[in-house]
Write a structure and sequence with these properties.
Radius of gyration: 37 Å
Number of helices: 38
Shape: elongated
Membrane topology: Multi-pass membrane protein
Helix content: 40-55%
Structural class: alpha+beta
InterPro entries: ATPase_P-typ_cyto_dom_N (IPR023299), ATPase_P-typ_P_site (IPR018303), ATPase_P-typ_TM_dom_sf (IPR023298), ATPase_P-typ_transduc_dom_A_sf (IPR008250), HAD-like_sf (IPR036412), HAD_sf (IPR023214), P-type_ATPase_IV (IPR006539), P-type_ATPase_N (IPR032631)
Oligomer: single chain
Cofactor: Mg(2+)
Organism: Sander lucioperca (Pike-perch)
Number of strands: 35
Distance between the termini: 8 Å
Pfam family, one: Cation_ATPase
Length: about 1150
């Protein structure tokens, strides 16, 4: 982008009929980050204190500075609180920096303002909404790719006004240009623009055909100049992008609710103890006033009040602050697992998976709905010519010497096209029989490829002799023309009235007499040409059902054979076209041409009269054969969708592409299947029509929003204009019910904002976790709207990745992200929370029971050092080891049993019910841990007859029993023992005894007597057999109910995890069964037709407006033209065609080229 000038131009916006001419000029800077250096600290602290527990600990800190209340030092709360806030703030800052560091790669675009005139060059991104002024192409045309806006890879044409096109690239004229633009206010409508340009006293209308929107890419155009109309957040693309929101997991939200419940329970316990203190002071306290006189004004009620707050501090461990530190560490560790996973690394682009946030990992194990883009996410943006049928013979398959068909892989031998110096060096085809038929000059084969080389709207560019670049609005046509090129029929150039091709080394020019253009009703395209010998011929290609209706009856047998081939092609998910031709009589054609001219000049019923003429001449055709094109899916897409479906995950495809294309991909990737009971099509053009279509489905099948169990499997396909009505408030619930009943949903022709609206609709009415995945700027809004956003890197720029929570290079990695990392993260987090609450509730409840035996004096039952180190040292590492390394089954078996994912969707591992069970278990364990040691030490003497029933010995015994009980409970929770886990568990117990004997030693007492009062307690108590017997008894009594419950539960009501683990026991020493590498569809459904270019493209060709500079002249004979590879665009396997016209691996030039070429949009290095 070259910054020319800030011209003297007024942008006038109309808001509700009011002229707003004094609006400040909008800069082009945008922000995807949440913080800046000035707002980071207050915003981050505000977000952190939204966690109720953090606010609670701040309140505790205030209480602890009051000496009459606190029995603990203030630093015991300050240090952990500051540590938690610091660690979390550092993590949030890192996540935010990662999310924005790639955004502004060039500072030039930041300086652009409304009214600036800028220069764009080929392959550059448009990053502001521009009014096209002039271009390097004839008639001021430019060619753009809008994949990031609407998902379509076919090129589109924009044309500048003639009055501005005359400015050319003259900087002085552009700088002196002075005009006034009146246009609509900023909005999110990508398909329309209204405005006027007033210049030199004349007013010119402006529409969408003269606007270059932010997000599109300039293609096949050397340069162009544009005037900035909207910049930054006012551009249509940014108007479609949602706001960056702070995402929290469902477990976080549940934790806030549980913390509130815990606070209530804490207040309840403190109230009971305070009331107990009040009664004790009134009944028993008076007896101690002789040697413990009360201060003036202190009565039993005031003592109870102080006791309440003292117990708030002592019992605060029901919500330990270390919980949140541990949660952040676990999330960080599981995020590293995603970053380090080599099985999610894509070597072709050197792209690893990346967890761009560390706060949502466990949410990956609860996904119920996936919203996916199509272009670049499910597909590779590559069309490949795979097979064809010519004169009743099928080509494209490879057979061995026994006649068995072989599966084509990258190791399969390819056809040698060295006989053709103009062949695309990257074209790959494997059936040698077809090229032999071409060399043997089979007339039907030659006619087949001649039709492909002539009947199209492709443009050819030849900057150097022999270096051909094809520019096609439809990628299907690009693949077909490239296939013809490699088989010896090379389309070289065209003029408004001729098409030049090279047929087997001989250059021939055909006079172009008429183009009968394609549209969605005709579903076919025809051209009429005169050969150099003067022979008239009509060539036609289109949907097979349409072509068959117009065939001559002599083709019936050939039609039957071709139909069998078409059914086979359709069964493999290929997009088919039928080809036919007809020789024309000169006299008849002249009469038809005259009538065609008269019809084209009619003012009334022009289209219907032209259609009648087209129908008349396109009959009695002779069938040549059929083509089969693959809209190439990314590797592993069908398998991934099948696995996710088995995991009860519903997949909705939201695409800006046309309905036919989206349906074809739906069947190819196994999203839609022939086995489905029905596929509903909603395509109403009014609210009444859409409502009627939805209600007709409802009458056929009875279902409700809460119960999605329906007899059979169904699919739903809905268009964008119908979706706009369906999303209205009065109809959205009815649409959602219909969609949720279906196994798969495809929304076509949707805008980026509609994608986000669909996601928000599901979030609004369904208690389910959603995930959105896409690769372009048009997917940003739904990525932000979903609970989890995933960006596919390397296809359509980096906009989607920058807004995502997770990113990787291929859709197939999604199953590993969810079924392995997501499920493990959720399982580990739930186990961690259950165990953490158990060990801390048990620890705290012992204080509660002890209160009834210490006069409700707020005395702690444990040594203060044990209270300090319990969560920090003694139990920290074992639970972290379980939360970072535990797995119920390994990754291979997770794929083999995708049903293991379902419990996460149902919140079975951690919920309010599970929390309540945990609290009851803790209550029971705390009673055992207090009353058994209390009874064991009551009136007990040592072996030498001395009394051991003192407070310090009781505290040591109780805390030792507690530590053994919670450690054994951890062992029962753990499913996967590793060396690290074992070391952490045994090491923590060893650390406890080492620290205990050290702190209770004579030396520590002599150094600091007030801090280490338990002198000699450990060696005097732990050498008694009854102590160890008590520890054994409490451990057994604590664990026994758990073991009994689990045994009975597994026997009577086993979970899916129990069933799988029991099933795996005899298979643990066997290798897992291999996953299927390919899913072949066996379907008779015809894929329709393989066109995707817009109606009216033929008129551009014949008018000459579309034409580029003429091709270089030179010899076309095969003998004197060397085969050139420099500058060729990669065409992928079997004539894969990408409209970008650039190598797909341009960004990673050292990567070995394989048969699975993919195409990507590469940002210009100048940016």
């Amino acid at each position: 982008m070259t910054f020319i000038t800030h011209m003297d131009l007024i942008i006038i916006l109309y808001f509700s009929h009011f002229l707003h001419s004094f609006k400040p000029l909008q800069t082009n800077a945008i922000k995807t980050s949440k913080y800046n250096p000035f707002t980071f600290l207050p915003l981050n602290l505000f977000e952190q204190f939204q966690r109720i527990a953090n606010a609670y600990f701040l309140f505790l800190l205030v209480l602890q500075v009051i000496p009459q209340i606190s029995s603990l030092s203030w630093f015991t709360t300050v240090v952990p609180l500051v540590l938690v806030l610091t660690v979390t703030a550092a993590k949030d800052a890192t996540d935010d920096i990662v999310s924005k560091c790639v955004l502004l790669r060039s500072e030039k675009w930041m300086d652009v303002q409304v009214g600036d005139i800028i220069r764009l060059e080929n392959n550059q991104f448009v990053t502001a909404d521009l009014l096209l002024l002039s271009s390097s192409e004839p008639l001021n045309l430019v060619y753009i790719e809008t994949a990031e806006l609407d998902g379509e890879t076919n090129l589109k044409v924009r044309q500048a006004l003639t009055v501005t096109g005359d400015l050319g690239e003259d900087s002085e004229k552009l700088a002196d240009f002075n005009g006034e633009v009146r246009c609509e206010p900023p909005n999110n409508r990508l398909d329309r623009f209204t405005g006027t340009l007033t210049y030199a006293g004349q007013k010119y209308p402006l529409d969408n055909e003269k606007i270059l929107l932010r997000g599109c890419t300039l293609r096949n155009t050397e340069w162009c100049f544009g005037l900035v109309l909207f910049a930054g957040p006012e551009t249509k693309l940014m108007q479609n992008s949602g706001k960056t929101t702070f995402k929290r997991t469902s477990i976080d939200r549940l934790m806030n609710v549980l913390v509130l419940c815990i606070f209530g329970f804490l207040a309840f316990m403190c109230t009971i103890l305070a009331i107990g203190n009040c009664f004790w002071e009134m009944n028993e306290g008076s007896q101690f006033m002789v040697f413990l006189p009360r201060q003036d004004g202190n009565n039993a009620a005031f003592s109870a009040f102080l006791t309440f707050w003292s117990y708030v501090i002592i019992l605060n461990t029901v919500v330990p602050i270390s919980l949140y530190v541990s949660v952040e560490i676990i999330r960080l560790g599981n995020s590293f697992y995603i970053d380090w996973d080599r099985k999610m690394y894509f070597s072709r682009y050197n792209t690893p998976a990346e967890a761009r946030t560390t706060t949502l990992n466990e949410e990956l194990g609860q996904i119920k709905y996936i919203f996916s883009d199509k272009t670049g996410t499910l597909t590779q943006n590559v069309m490949t010519f795979n097979k064809c049928s010519i004169n009743g013979k099928s080509y494209g398959d490879v057979y061995d010497y026994t006649g068995q068909r072989l599966e084509i892989t990258k190791h399969t031998d390819t056809v040698d096209f060295s006989f053709n110096p103009l062949a695309d060096p990257r074209f790959m085809f494997h059936d040698h029989a077809l090229v032999e038929a071409v060399k043997l000059e089979d007339p039907e084969v030659h006619a087949f490829f001649r039709l492909l080389a002539l009947c199209h709207t492709v443009m050819a560019e030849e900057k150097k002799e022999g270096e051909l670049f094809y520019q096609a609005q439809s990628p299907d046509e690009g693949a077909l023309v490239t296939a013809a090129r490699n088989f010896g029929f090379v389309f070289r150039s065209r003029t408004p009235d001729s098409v030049s091709i090279v047929e087997m080394g001989e250059e021939r020019s055909y006079e172009l007499l008429a183009i009968l253009d394609f549209n969605n009703v005709r579903k076919r395209m025809s051209i009429i040409v005169r050969s150099p010998e003067g022979k008239l011929c009509l060539y036609c290609k289109g949907a097979d059902t349409i072509i068959y209706e117009r065939l001559h009856q002599s083709c019936s047998k050939l039609m039957d054979v071709t139909t069998e081939h078409l059914n086979e092609f359709a069964g493999e998910g290929l997009r088919t076209l039928a080809l036919a031709y007809k020789n024309l009589d000169e006299e008849y054609f002249n009469q038809w041409k005259q009538r065609h001219h008269e019809a084209s000049t009619e003012l009334d019923n022009q289209e219907s009269k032209l259609d009648e003429l087209y129908e008349e001449i396109e009959k009695d055709l002779l069938l040549l054969g059929a083509t089969a094109i693959e809209d190439k899916l990314q590797d592993g897409v069908p398998q991934t969708i099948e696995q996710l479906s088995k995991a009860n995950i519903k997949i909705w495809v939201l695409t800006g592409d046309k309905q036919e294309t989206a349906e074809n991909i739906g069947y190819s990737c196994n999203l839609l299947r022939e086995e489905m009971n029905d596929v509903f099509i909603v395509s109403g053009n009014s609210p009444e029509d859409v409502r009627q279509e939805l209600r007709s489905v409802k009458r056929l099948y009875h279902f409700s929003l809460d119960n999605e169990l329906v007899n059979g499997e169904y699919g739903l396909v809905i268009n964008g204009h119908s979706l706009a009505y369906a999303l209205e408030g009065s109809m959205e619930l009815e649409f959602l019910r219909t969609a949720c009943m279906c196994k798969a949903v495809i929304c076509c022709r949707v805008t980026p904002l509609q994608k986000a609206q669909v996601v928000e609709l599901v979030k609004k009415y369904k208690q389910a976790v959603t995930l959105a995945i896409g690769d372009g700027a048009n997917d940003v809004s739904m990525i932000k709207a979903a609970h989890i956003g995933v960006g596919i890197s390397g296809q359509e720029g980096m906009q989607a990745v920058l807004s995502s929570d997770y990113s990787f290079a291929q859709f197939r990695f999604l199953q590993r992200l969810l079924l392995v990392h997501g499920r493990w993260s959720y399982l580990r987090m739930c186990k961690f929370l259950r165990y953490f609450f158990y060990k801390n509730f048990t620890f705290t409840f012992v204080h509660f029971w002890y209160g009834f035996f210490c006069g409700f004096s707020a005395q702690t039952v444990y040594d203060e050092w044990f209270i300090t180190l319990y969560n920090l040292v003694y139990t920290a590492l074992p639970v972290l080891g379980m939360s970072l390394f535990d797995q119920d089954v390994n990754d291979v078996w997770s794929f083999q049993y995708p049903q293991l994912y379902i419990p996460g969707q149902l919140n079975l591992y951690f919920s309010k019910k599970a929390f309540f069970k945990c609290a009851l278990h803790s209550c029971y364990s705390s009673m055992v841990l207090f009353f058994i040691p209390y009874a064991a030490m009551h009136n007990t003497v040592r072996d030498d007859g001395k009394d051991v029933a003192d407070y310090q010995s009781f505290a040591l015994l109780t805390q030792t029993c507690l530590l053994f009980a919670v450690t054994i409970q951890l062992g029962l929770e753990m499913s996967y023992w590793t060396a690290v886990n074992t070391f952490f568990v045994l090491g923590s117990l060893a650390m406890y005894f080492a620290v205990t004997f050290t702190m209770y030693s004579n030396g520590m007492f002599l150094i600091l007597p007030s801090a280490f009062p338990f002198i000699g307690t450990a060696r005097n108590s732990l050498n008694q057999p009854n102590m160890w017997l008590t520890i054994l008894l409490t451990s057994i009594l604590c664990v026994l109910p758990v073991v009994t419950y689990r045994f009975l539960f597994i026997q009577l009501c086993p979970t899916i995890n129990d069933k799988v683990r029991m099933d795996l026991l005899p298979k643990q020493h066997l290798p897992p069964p291999p996953l299927r590498t390919r899913i072949r569809r066996t379907s008779s459904r015809r894929s329709g037709y393989a066109f995707s270019h817009a109606q009216g493209y033929g008129d551009l060709v014949t008018s000459g407006r579309f034409l580029r500079r003429p091709a270089l002249s030179g010899s076309s004979g095969f003998a004197n033209i060397g085969r050139t590879t420099t500058g060729f665009s990669p065409m992928g396997r079997s004539a894969g065609y990408s409209p970008t016209g650039r190598p797909q691996n341009a960004k990673v030039p050292d990567v070995e080229v394989t048969s699975l070429q993919m195409y990507r949009t590469v940002r210009d290095p100048a940016f």
